[in-house]
Specification:
Rossmann fold; Isoleucyl-tRNA Synthetase, domain 2; four-stranded parallel beta sheet; four-stranded antiparallel beta sheet; 31 helices; 37 strands; 18% strand; globular; RNA-binding
Length: 949
RNA sequence: GCCAGAGUGGCGGAAUGGCAGACGCGCUGGAUUCAAAAUCCAGUGCCCGCAAGGGCGUGUGGGUUCAAGUCCCUCCUCUGGUACCA
């Protein structure tokens, strides 16, 4: 009995496509043919195999590709593997087996599973980031980064040889020049704090540290600075943000990236602290209040001299030792700065600490250093901090302001120091309340509601606030604040310093600047500070430079050599491995366990255990030690889409002509979990390659779509622990690959999160069974056409159904609304199942529109309908719009907006005839008697609505 | 906290401001069958009603409109992201 048996027809067609190289893509799109580059985010080949979440995006892109081929496009649709990664390394540590062995096994499983689903990839372009011939070029790109500096004037990455060397550096000789260059490269070394667990002998990721202990084994973890490779992505922050504009990405993802980059515009301002250490002691600073901008003298000669000098010299690029430089987005609140805070890591901490405060400050800094970032950044905890004992002078009103150390100020952002304006910043307010620091309002919020102030009065009234005891010298002016009372208006509370308001308003308590609205004030004071040499406009980014090295084995080795002196000690000079020497392969190791501490007592990566012949090459008589860090997993995925264009090229990473022809990627589909990092890193590399002339487009991913996660049948995230993981192998075995593909698309919108449902798979399988029976005689002994399939012309109604279906499926695919496209095809099937005569030409066309979704059954039916070749390149069926229109349509008739009847009228009836038809309807006529019609709304083709009295 | 997205039958979900619930699952009834499976046909938001028909209905409360799931405001819930970025 020729029933629909996917288990036999699916492998049959996969073999056919393979044998005929149906989806082999030409090197270059032929002249006159439009190209389409459609890319899936390539998977990490985990040991657990493909997950039903993977085929969601893959099926969507496959439909787009198959549709595009049938519409005459030349399609590039490749697949590969992001194969470096921690799980393989952990497996290697446990078993002693080389991670490559395990990785290759997993890739085989993934490949089998992907092929089983009938995706139209050009498998000849298959690659893995762990292939020697692939990471050779990853290393090569790293060397491009290493060879590039960012010219801020031209806003462009340029060769390091073009970096202007200041005369004073040049005069210090060759070594100084090289160090100067190294400081300016996009790939540079820097000390970064790592989580080092001496017990485990390894460096841990932030997620692996809990409460200062290692997640595994609960061993103590210390934070220590380690020489790390960094990539200067911050140089490209502006371009990475601005270029988002031209991309066809969802606004949500663009915003996510933009927020991650976190550009803010404000001002840098220098607060004078004096030269000696520490200078402005309590009581020593008592400058007379003056109006900023007037050249009145204070009674602090040191300060006066500094200010005068600044007026002449202007604002220096680098702050001197005599000032604390702060960054603020609210220079208009300078007059409300009642204290300052510097980060515990700030280099001035020791200098600014008075002898009386020394013990407290040192203890605080020590405690902060031992805490993980995670613990420090817990916003729910109470603010902590300690007074240094020193004061700085507010440059605008010459008031002394106490300098505190607190970990709510981050060393990594801005200048690591802030002016605190508790009246207009929630964090500063909280801190001021905690330590009894004064709150001076400088922005009049005007008439506001209580939701705009912090804390909301209700919050204060419910929790009794107690003023903690503070060091006696902590409060230059003793103004303790009582909780908000119910009587005070929100505005009054702000003006009294009892609440904080972060919005914009009109300035007060700001001497000559009173009465300005926030935006004007910002502009004015920034300009005035610039003139006085006390500040300038500044831009800051939340984005940090990319920590690019890992102390792991299973990653790309850095193609970098550290020069050694005669005694075998590093000279501090580095050089790149020659391009012709690439790739630098991973060395043989006896085991993959962490290397523990190196000879210097610092954490050593596994590659430090490499044999000497690998580790210590000699070039031109000079001895070197190889870099032993490896690159992070992100590296390989930063450029794989370029290699797919020219995967076998052993001269270049990609041929320029091919790159120009295929880029950019027209559609990129993947999970939203990569919305920030992968896409940002990738775009960054691409821009560097663009600046250096290696690629032709500034952006790689023109259109991006994020598929939603597929949950388990119980609505929870799929996981082994929850026991709700669905294995595609099982689904294919029980229902077939076409059913799996169809169901993945039928579940709901591609971008939505949606639960798996076995019953749903059964449903779409039922649909395919019906399609099969529509064409195949399933009662016959042999495979033959259903008797209803005849070589006759379709009836008008059949034709209308066909053309409507083609029209809707076509537009649904173009909008990537696959779920409704499938619904339309189900309607088609339901209609034709009832037809006892089914014109062959109609079924031909239907099979073609079904084929992108369910390619195996479509090929099989296409063959049965008498066609000799694959349908993969058959022209997509066209529709005649005139044939999609019904002759008569049903129009709803409403009275006062409520549906009261329906009338059938000829399509295209004009307003007058619609009204006539509606009024002649018996029920409407009855309801209208005795009523006055105030207004009649007629939407031709849609409805009639009588508004009556 | 903040940002983004989402709340529609028993379930997954459809709906350029114009007939809410397409399509699928499930359920009910029927045909076929000795019987069952499979298949085919019909019905299926809730309430009242024998029916004709009526009322109510897209998280909550308000608003705009002849007309609101859709637009505006308030609040609630869920999901994801993020975490003191001055």
């Amino acid at each position: 009995m020729p029933r629909y048996t996917p288990a036999t027809i699916e492998p049959k067609w996969q073999a056919y496509w393979d044998e005929h190289q149906t989806f082999r893509t030409p090197e270059l799109p032929p002249a006159g043919q439009e190209k389409l580059y459609v890319l899936d985010m390539f998977p990490y080949p985990s040991g657990s195999g493909l997950h039903v979440g993977h085929p969601e995006g893959y099926t969507a892109t496959d439909i787009v590709c198959r549709f595009a081929r049938m519409n005459g496009k030349c399609v590039l649709h490749p697949m590969g593997f992001d194969a470096f990664g921690l799980p393989a390394e952990e497996h290697a540590i446990r078993t002693g087996e080389h991670p490559r062995t395990n990785t290759e096994t997993n890739i085989k499983v993934f490949t089998r599973q992907l092929r089983m689903l009938g995706f139209s990839y050009d498998w000849s372009r298959d690659l893995a980031t762990t292939d020697l011939e692939y990471f050779r070029w990853t290393q090569w790109i790293f060397l491009v980064l290493f060879d590039t500096w960012y010219d801020a004037d031209q806003q462009k990455g340029r060769p390091i040889s073009e970096l202007p060397i200041p005369a004073e550096v040049r005069s210090q000789g060759e070594a100084a020049v090289r160090k100067y260059q190294d400081e300016h490269r996009l790939a540079y070394q820097s000390d970064a704090l790592v989580n080092w667990c001496p017990e485990l002998g390894t460096v841990l990721a932030n997620e692996e540290v809990i409460d200062g202990k290692s997640e595994r084994g609960s061993h103590p973890v210390v934070r220590l600075p380690l020489r790390q490779w960094m990539l200067r992505i911050t140089a490209y922050a502006d371009r990475l943000e601005k270029d988002l504009e031209g991309l066809d990405w969802s606004p949500g993802i663009k915003k996510l990236q933009s927020d991650w980059i976190g550009r803010s515009v404000g001002a840098e301002v220098d607060f004078f602290v004096g030269q000696s250490s520490p200078t402005l002691r309590v009581g020593q600073a008592s400058p007379a209040k003056v109006e900023f901008g007037k050249s009145a003298e204070t009674n602090n000669p040191e300060f006066d001299a500094w200010k005068a000098a600044r007026a002449k010299s202007g604002f220096p690029k680098k702050p001197g030792e005599d000032v604390l430089r702060i960054y603020t987005t609210r220079p208009d609140t300078l007059f409300g700065a009642t204290y300052m805070v510097i980060a515990p890591e700030h280099p001035f901490v020791a200098r600014l600490t008075t002898p009386e405060q020394k013990t407290a400050v040192e203890a605080y800094v020590q405690a902060a250093a031992s805490k993980s970032d995670r613990d420090r950044q817990d916003v729910n905890k109470k603010k902590t901090g300690v007074f240094t004992g020193s004061y700085a002078i507010n440059p605008v009103n010459h008031e002394p302001v106490p300098v505190w150390v607190a970990d709510y100020v981050l060393w990594g952002y801005g200048t690591g120091a802030i002016m605190a304006v508790p009246a207009h910043d929630e964090r500063d307010f909280e801190f001021a309340q905690q330590f009894g620091l004064p709150v001076v309002a400088v922005v009049d919020p005007g008439d506001i509601s209580e939701v705009e102030v912090y804390p909301k009065p209700s919050q204060v009234l419910s929790t009794q606030y107690s003023v903690p005891s503070t060091p006696e010298n902590a409060t230059p002016t003793t103004t303790h604040h009582s909780p908000l009372t119910t009587h005070a208006s929100p505005r009054q509370s702000v003006l009294n310093g009892q609440a904080c308001f972060v919005g914009e308003g009109v300035s007060i308590n700001s001497n000559g600047y009173n009465g300005l609205v926030t935006s004007d004030f910002k502009r004015r004071i920034t300009a005035d500070l610039t003139t006085a040499g006390l500040g300038r406009e500044a831009v800051n980014y939340k984005l940090r430079d990319w920590l690019f090295s890992r102390q792991r084995f299973w990653g790309e080795p850095f193609p970098i050599l550290h020069e050694l002196d005669a005694a075998g000690n590093p000279t501090g000079l580095i050089r790149a491995v020659d391009e012709q020497e690439l790739p630098v392969d991973l060395p043989h190791l006896d085991d993959y366990k962490p290397a523990g501490a190196g000879p210097d007592g610092l954490p050593a990566p596994p590659l430090a255990k490499a044999p000497a012949e690998w580790l210590y090459p000699t070039i031109d008589g000079k001895k070197y030690r190889r870099e032993t860090n490896t690159m992070p997993q992100w590296a390989g995925s930063c450029w794989y889409f370029l290699r797919f264009i020219d995967p076998k090229n052993n001269q270049r990473f990609v041929d320029p002509a091919k790159e120009r022809a295929w880029m950019p990627i027209d559609l990129y589909v993947g999970g939203a979990e990569h919305a920030v990092l992968h896409l940002l890193y990738s775009r960054f590399w691409h821009k560097v390659l663009f600046d250096r002339g290696h690629v032709s487009k500034p952006e790689p991913f023109q259109k991006l779509v994020n598929q939603g996660m597929i949950l388990g049948e119980n609505g929870e995230k799929m996981s082994k622990a929850r026991g709700n993981v669905v294995n595609p192998d099982d689904v294919v075995r029980d229902y077939g690959a076409d059913s799996l593909r169809l169901f993945e698309m039928f579940m709901g919108p591609l971008e939505a999160v949606k639960p798996w449902s076995t019953a749903g798979v059964v449903g779409v399988r039922g649909f395919l069974d019906r399609v099969w029976r529509l064409i195949v005689d399933d009662k016959a002994e042999a495979l033959k056409l259903n008797e209803s399939v005849q070589n006759v012309a379709p009836t008008d109604e059949q034709n209308r159904t066909l053309h409507k279906t083609i029209k809707q499926v076509t537009s649904d695919i173009q909008r990537m609304e696959f779920n409704t496209a499938i619904a339309r095809m189900m309607e088609f099937t339901n209609f034709f199942t009832k037809e006892t005569v089914r014109p062959r030409e109609v079924l031909d066309k239907f099979v073609l529109i079904l084929s992108p979704f369910a390619p195996h059954i479509a090929e099989e039916l296409w063959q049965l309908l008498g066609h000799k070749q694959t349908l993969a390149y058959e022209p997509w069926p066209t529709y005649d719009d005139a044939l999609t229109k019904d002759a008569e349509i049903e129009i709803p008739v409403q009275i006062l907006g409520k549906l009261r009847s329906k009338v059938v009228v000829p399509a295209g009836s004009d307003q007058a005839s619609l009204i006539a038809a509606a009024r002649s309807d018996a029920r409407i006529a009855e309801l209208l008697t005795g009523k006055e019609i105030v207004k009649t709304i007629v939407v031709p083709g849609k409805l009639v609505n009588f508004v009556v009295k």
